Every structure is written in C-alpha cells, then in structure tokens.
Amino acid sequence: LFSMSKIRFGLEAMIGKPAFKYGWGWTIGTVFIPFVSLYRPWVGFAEVRRATHGMASRKRISLEWKSDGFNTATLALALAYFGASIALQVLDKEANTIAAGDDFGLADVDRMTGLCATEVVARLVIFGALVWYLRSTTAAARQVADVAATADTFS
Predict the structure, then answer these.
(1) What are the C-alpha distances in Å from 143 to residues 4, 6, 53, 64, 139?
(2) 154, 15 in Cβ contact below 8 A?
C-alpha cells in the first residue's frame, strides 16, 4: 500500500491536476471492508498501474492512459491474492480437523507435512505476485519520472 501510494502521489505531482477517478483514501480504506474489498481497492490499484504503464509506454506525461482500458495485471494479482487466501483457509480447516482427531499417528504427520508445504506454496504465490506487480509498476513509474525530468510541459 505504501509503495502504490508513493507512486500515485508522484504521478499526481507530475501531472499537476486531478487525474484519477478513484480516491486513494477509499482505495486504502476499502481493502479492509468485507465484500467491498472484492472490487473497489483493485480498481484504484489498476488506475495507478494503467497511469504508470500508459505514460511510460508513450514516453510523455499525459492523460491518454485513461483510454487504455482493462488492466489484466491487476486482475492477475487479485486472483492470486484471493485464490491463495481461500487455499489458506481450506488448509487451516483441514489442519484443525486432523489435530482434533483422537489418535494422531504417522499418517497424520505426513498429512500435516503436506498441508504445511502447500501453505508455503500459497504464501509464495501471494508474495511473488505482489513483488512482480510492485516491481513492474515501480519500474514504469521511474520511466515516467525520467520523462518528466526531460519534458517541459504537460501534454
């Protein structure tokens, strides 16, 4: 959240006028609200990503990125996040079921080991998707900053 907010505020400073449809306070706040968090924060993140990648690919500071359309990278991040979160809930429930059993044997140890390995993979999926998303957005933001440093005016 911190990285995306720094990128967004940097873009707003470069553009010099309100460019974003989705307010950043609501984007951050809705991350923590059930059901709303399925949609609202992701469109705010997508807007920042579209802006950075749109301006970086055009090599100019403008609002043309607004016509770029749907952002599949943000959808991929959201799907990785929700898919891994659901997997973690299922794994936790299964581990609790095994642990609640009367006779905990060697087979149960093997099952728990498998569950732990699967949990590590699910957490790595979330972490990897987030790192990829933030690194690519940050790289595009750096390109936009380089363009802004050489540009005289907003186009």
Answers:
(1) 15, 15, 9, 16, 6
(2) yes
